[in-house]
Structure prediction request, 288 residues.
Amino acid sequence: MDQALILKKMAAERESDMTRTRHAWNRNERRVRVIAVTSGKGGVGKTNIAANLAFSLVQMKKKALLLDADLGLANVDVILGLAPEFNLYHVLKGEKTISETVINGPGGIMILPAASGIAEMAELSAGHKMTLLDVLNDFRQKIDYMFIDTAAGIAGNVMYFNAAAKEIIVVVSPEPTSLTDAYALIKVLYQRYAKRVFRLIVNMAKDQAEAKQVYQRLNKATDHFLDLNIGYLGHVLNDDNVTQSVRRQKVVSELYPDSPASRCLREIARKLAGENPDYEDDGNISFC
Prediction:
C-alpha cells in the first residue's frame, strides 16, 4: 500500500478513536445515577427513604428525579402532600410529555407521579415499557440522580424497574419477615436477571449495632446460598419524627432536619454523592 495511503488510514483511525473517546467522555459527564429503592416487604419505609435521599441530594446542589414506580397504587404524592394533575399513565398513553407531567416536590425534587387505581398500570405491557425507556432517556440531560421507588415484592413491574436500574438499594427493617422477603427479592434478581450488586439500608433500627446485625444476617444468607455478598450502605434510626412528618405529609429531612433519622439519611446521601460507580453490563435493558 502506498505510504501516503497508510498514513492517511492511520490518521483516520486515530481520529475515530478520539471521537469515540470524546463520546464516552460526554456520556460519563451526563451519566445519570439510576437507583432503584426496593424491598421484599411493604411497610419498611422505602418511599420515605427514597424521598429523603432525593431531598438531601438536592440540598447538595444535585438534580434528582423521584419516579413513583408503584404504578397501580401510587403513594409518593400522598406522602408528600401533592396533588398532581397528570401522572405516568398520561405519559404512556401519549397524552402528555414527561416535562408536562413532572412536578416540583420539597426542596426542588422533581417527581414523576404514578397513577392510582388503574388496573392496566399494575402490569406494564411491552410497549409501555419501551415507551417509558424512551421518555426517561430523553429526560436525562435534566437530572443527576433518578430514584425509582418500586412497589414491594417480586411482581413483574418490580422486577422490570429493578432490572432496568443501574443500582439497587434494598430497604429492610429489623423484622424477620422483612429479611426473609428481602432475600427472596435478591434471589430472583440475581438468578433471573443477573443482578450482582445490591446495597442494604436498615430502616427503623434501634441503634447502629442492631442495624449491623440485621445486615450480617442477610449477608450471611446470600453469601451461603447464592454465593453473593451485599453491601452495607447505612441505617436509619427509629425516630418518632418520621411518623410526625408522614402525618404532616412532609419529608422528615425538611421538617426535622436535626432529628436522628434526618442525620442518618444525610449521611447516606453524602456517601452516594461521593461515589463514581463503574457499571457493568448485565445484559438487561436500562434507563439512561
